[in-house]
Amino acid sequence: MSAPSEAAPAVSAPAPATTAAASSGGFTFKLHPLVIVNVSDHHTRVKAQAACSGDSSSSSSAAGAGAAAGQPPRVFGCVIGVQRGRTVEIFNSFELVLDPVSGTLDRAFLEKKQELYKKVFPDFYVLGWYSTGSDVHDTDMQIHKALMDVNESPVYLLLNPTINLSQKDLPVTIYESELHVIDGSPQLIFVRSNYTIETVEAERISVDHVAHLKPSDGGSAATQLAAHLTGIHSAIKMLNSRVRVIHQYLVAMQKGDIPVDNSLLRQVSSLVRRLPAMESQKFQDDFLMEYNDTLLMTYLAMFTNCSSTMNELVEKINTSYERPTTRRGGRGAFM
User: Fold this and answer.
1) What is the pLDDT, as a whole number, of residue 26?
2) Start-end of H helices in the chain
3) How far apart are alpha carbons 14 and 5 in whole angstroms?
4) What are phi and psi of 13, to 5 degrees?
5) What pLDDT digit, counting tens, does each position of 167-196 carry?
6) Would you say 212 and 233 are in contact if contact means Cβ atoms under 8 Å apart?
7) What three-state secondary structure class fits 31?
8) Could you tell me the CA-to-CA distances from 2 to 78, 150, 193, 305 in Å, in that order?
9) Which spans in 155-220 are helix H?
């Protein structure tokens, strides 16, 4: 899809028709939790600044575009990651600076951020952008088109910061842009895309730790240690439950209760091969050798301490029983 050279007007199609369509691009999106944490933190900071200043429209140069009066200001940023074929994996994000009046991007700031991230993450590219809100705004397409010179088909991640206790799914929606014919004219509209949450073990433990953080005001070191150990216990418990699910699935597959999935078996085999072979003879030999070497070093240290103690004792005895070299009768000293 080629990018237009100038900013096009906002989409004139109604919001339901713009956001209800399903994507036909065939992309698979994987979203890492760090992105959600970054966007949520960005929104929380801007909202707190707006509350302190008393004016949500002037709280930040990177927020406020498209925010209604009395509503928390919207925040904007870029999402970065990698694309492997038809799989798009979003790893991280950074904030964007927008003009609060015209809503245009600060290109110099964006290029500087890209340059800095390239030095740290050379394999990451700008995949699209993010914002906050309950639904797509008309002005979002203008920002979307402005990023098409960076990525010809950017993705749009929308986080709804409104708390809904009855909602069980994450309030995150990923949109792609597609060219549709509306009222006889081609228009670029947003279409929803499915995604999965992708985590590595370090991210899973970190997210679980953040979820159990408590205010440090008035807290003691014991309280912080207890919270830390509770987080580790929760992570180990989660890992144990996941291993149990895999084991039950493999047992059911072995019994013939479910069909055999060779792709899943290869993934499980690859995972198992990463673990150390605890029952192999080589492991036992290496373990016993290391254990014996450790015991030998411990014994040598004990012998050295004993020898040093004995030398000190002999020196004290010689000093205590030291006598003149000659005594009456011509006999020498006792020692």
Assistant:
1) 74
2) 15-19, 33-53, 107-120, 140-146, 201-211, 221-255, 262-273, 281-320
3) 25
4) -70, 150
5) 878 889 999 988 877 777 777 888 888 888
6) no
7) strand
8) 20, 11, 20, 79
9) 201-211
User: Which residues partner with 76 through β-bridges?
Assistant: 131
DSSP strands (E only) in 125-254: 125-132, 155-159, 172-182, 185-193, 195-197
Distance, CA of 247 to CA of 315 (rounded, Å): 67
Tokens representing residue 187 in the block: 């228009």
Give the pair of three-digit tokens for residue 266. Answer: 């290869």
Q: Where are the beta strands (DSSP E) in 248-308?
A: none
Dist CA 49 CA 85 (whole Å): 41
- Per DSSP, 328 falls in state T
* Side chain identity, residue 30: K
Gyration radius of the chain over CA positions:
33
What is the separation of C-alpha 47 from the centre of its chain, rounded to a whole number of angstroms? 23
- SS3 assignment, position 92: strand
Task: Kindly tell me the sign of the dihedral angle through the C-alpha atoms of 258, 260, 262, 268.
Answer: positive
* Helix, strand or coil, per DSSP, at residue 146: helix
Contact call for residues 146 and 4 (beta carbons, < 8 A)? no
For residues 108 and 119, give the distance between their C-alpha atoms in angstroms, rounded to a whole number: 17
Q: Is 253 exposed, middle or buried (0-12, 13-18, 19+ CB in 10 A)?
A: middle
Task: Compute the distance between CA of residue 61 and CA of residue 159 in angstroms, rounded to an integer.
Answer: 19
pTM of the model: 0.56
- Residue 78's beta-bridge partner residues? 94, 129
257-281 confidence digits (pLDDT tens): 889 888 888 988 888 877 765 667 7
If DSSP codes are grouped into helix, strand and coil, which group holds residue 19?
A: helix
Q: What is the mean pLDDT of the chain?
A: 78
